[in-house]
Each structure stands twice: as C-alpha cells, then as structure tokens.
Design goal:
Elements: H1 7-25, H2 28-36, H3 47-56, H4 82-92, H5 108-111, H6 119-130, E1 135-140, E2 145-148, H7 167-180, E3 203-205, H8 206-209, H9 216-223, E4 227-232, H10 244-260, E5 266-272, E6 283-286, E7 289-294, E8 300-303, E9 308-315, E10 322-328, E11 335-336, E12 339-341, H11 345-354, H12 361-387
Parallel strand pairs: 1-4, 2-3, 5-11, 5-12
Antiparallel strand pairs: 2-4, 5-8, 6-7, 6-9, 9-10
Length: about 400
C-alpha cells in the first residue's frame, strides 16, 4: 500500500513469476491453486510513492518518503469510515438486528468530487465493487506482525481491542501467515521496535495495536464480502536488493498457504425454484455471527468459516427465506451448501401484472387465504383490546 514499503511489491512480482513457472512445470499444488482459484495480484497501490522512495534507494529513502501518494494522501487512512456509520446506527436503533452489518453504503460526502480521496483509492474501490473478492492481504513493512480487523477503535481511543463478529476466523487467517513465516516463527529474532509481538504469536487485532480510521481492511469487511488482513513483512521498509531472495524464502510458503484459505468454509448457489436461475444479491446469514454476505450477480456465494456446524439462512427480496445446516470440515476445501428459494405470492402477482398476464387460480386462492389470515389476526387484536 505504501510506496516506501517496497518488500510487498517485490514479493508479489516474485509470486507471479513463481506461480507461472511452477504451473508450467506441473507442480500439483500450484496447478490446483490456479485452476480452483480466481487470483488477482496488485504489486503496488502507490506507484508514485514507490518512485520517490526508489530514487533515494534503500539506505536513504527514510521512514516516510514515499508513504504518501502524489497528492499527499496516506491511503492507509483514505477509505470511507464505515465503522462509525455502523456504530452510530447501532447507538440509535434499539433492535440491533435492523442495523445493516454488511454492504454498508458509502456516505455521500465521500463520493463528492471535492472529497480528499486519492485517485488510487477510488480505483481500488471500483475494483472491489466490480469483482466479488473473498480473501485479501494488505502488504506493509516496518514491523513483523499480522494484524486483523477491526483496525479502528469504537470510541476513538488510541488503541483498544475491537474484534469483528468473525474474530475467530480472522485470528485463524493471521495465524496461518505468521506461523509459516520463517522470520516470525524464529524465537531468536530481534524486535523491530519496542513492541514484542512474539508474545502474541506475531498476530494482533489492528485496533489493539493502534487505531486506523479509514483502513482498507475495515472497508473491505463492511462494504464487500472480502476478508482482509494486514501483513507487516519486515523490520526494514525498503530492504536492499541483495536481501530479496532471502525475504522471498521467508514469505513464499506464507503467501501460498494464505491464498489456500479462501477454500475454507461454505460455498454454493442460491436459485429461483421456478426458473432455476441464480438470484443476485441474496443475503447469506450465519446464525450467531452478526455479519452477512451477499451472492454475486449469478447467484453464487462464498462464506469463510472455521470448521463446525452452522445454521445458514438464504433470503432475498420477494422470496421466502430458506434455512439449512451446513457442516464445515477440517479438510482444505469448501462445503457445498446450495439454496432454492420460492417466490412469495405477492412477488408472483407483481411479475404477472407487470407482464399483463392473468392471475392463476392457485395464486388467487393463496392471496385470499393470506387476506383472511390477516383479517382474523386483526379481529382478534381488536377484540382483545376491547375486553381489557
């Protein structure tokens, strides 16, 4: 993300080369990963910052030169603050279930032409909205630790433990990277600065390290289906060229095993019972986890979950919801959990009338039954009030 934290850029470029070479060699692991996973790799989110830092070189670029964009914006704080939007709504609304817990809209002030939003940030947001990402890693430098959302504290404290509803899975993601990184697992390694992250197995809740309003990780979680962590790759933000082969070996397994975690959990398709077409924007809700996701344009979805049994509900506007139990196993592949939804009588009526068609007798009977049921319920309520 930051132009002067160049190791992430070099690792992603090396990862591209490695995967292409190993795929051509027939490496079973890489072949399987490429064939079963839609992979997107972005080497640099701040190319202008990288150019500024690269001109000085690894020894002279300094701690901040190249951190900011050409427009002087720190993109690590530049995404829409949706945390405050959600938390403010929770403070006002008595029924917390009515507060959106996913796909939170971007505030109008953020989308205006005068908003201080970097060109690169806008481009990444458009990218997120175009493709249904499921898992991502945000590569940084200057420390050796993996952080997970939320990155922002709820009451604007300098730091405070602020977990998401998916805290257990985020901790798993962070642990997967940290425990396969050759430097992080070395008990004899030096501390980068004053903090000893080894006591926490080299992972930490982002907000419990320091609050970061407008982080990409929090934005991804609250505005899209994507789970994202931050990886601080090295004490040195801009290592020397001669150190890159060693850094690649330190991180190669971590990068691969992290990508493989996208296949943990459940996946499936939500379909219309009558047409068998996929239903876009259907909500997938997991019982006891207050964070939903949505289906893509063709009705398919992916929901990251730890092993266990879950009560999962699929619901969409104009359809009756459907609930089923889905078991996630320990094997590194997802459980298929498909849903078929039935249109409500009102939705069927709307579609028939919109096409100028005649109402079928079974639908007329169903609508009459619904009206009678509502009438009986309202009559009972009136009688109860009168008897009090």
């Amino acid at each position: 993300m930051h132009g002067n934290e160049a190791l992430g850029r070099e690792l992603v470029l090396n990862l591209m080369q490695y995967m292409c070479q190993e795929y051509r060699k027939g490496n079973p692991r890489i072949v399987h990963l490429v064939k079963e996973t839609r992979i997107h790799l972005l080497p640099s989110m701040n190319p202008d910052g990288y150019e500024m830092a690269a001109k000085k070189g690894s020894e002279l670029s300094g701690w901040a030169l190249g951190r900011y964009s050409y427009e002087g914006i720190d993109m690590n704080h530049n995404f829409a603050d949706l945390n405050s939007v959600m938390w403010d709504a929770q403070e006002i609304e008595m029924d917390k279930k009515k507060v959106p817990n996913h796909y939170i809209p971007i505030p109008e002030y953020y989308t205006s032409e005068t908003a201080m939003v970097a060109t690169e940030t806008r481009a990444v947001i458009n990218w997120m909205q175009l493709i249904p990402f499921v898992l991502s890693a945000n590569l940084h430098g200057g420390e050796l630790v993996v952080t997970y959302p939320y990155d922002m504290t709820r009451d604007w404290a300098p730091k405070d433990l602020t977990p998401t509803p998916d805290d257990s899975f985020f901790r798993w993601l962070a642990t997967v990277y940290a425990t396969t990184n050759q430097v992080m697992v070395n008990p004899d390694r030096r501390h980068c600065h004053n903090e000893d992250f080894m006591q926490g197995n080299n992972i930490i809740n982002g907000a419990n390290w320091h609050t970061v309003p407008g982080s990409m990780n929090d934005f991804s979680y609250l505005h899209t289906n994507c789970f994202e962590v931050t990886v601080e790759l090295s004490c040195d933000k801009f290592p020397h060229e001669s150190e890159l082969p060693t850094e690649w070996e330190n991180n190669k397994e971590s990068l691969l095993v992290y990508m493989e975690q996208v296949h943990r959990g459940i996946k499936g398709v939500v379909r219309d019972k009558d047409t068998n077409d996929g239903i876009a924007d259907a909500i997938i809700a997991v019982d006891e986890i207050n964070h939903d996701i949505r289906t893509a344009f063709d009705g398919d979805y992916w929901r990251l979950l730890n092993p266990g049994e879950y009560e999962v509900t699929a619901k969409a506007e104009g359809y009756f919801p459907s609930t089923r139990l889905c078991r996630v196993n320990y094997e590194p592949y997802p459980t298929i959990c498909d849903f078929t939804l039935t249109k409500t009588p009102k939705q069927r009526l709307r579609e028939i009338l919109a096409k100028g068609g005649k109402i079928p007798k079974d639908l007329m009977l169903r609508l009459r039954q619904i009206r009678l049921r509502k009438l009986r319920a309202s009559t009972k309520a009136i009688n109860r009030r009168r008897s009090q």
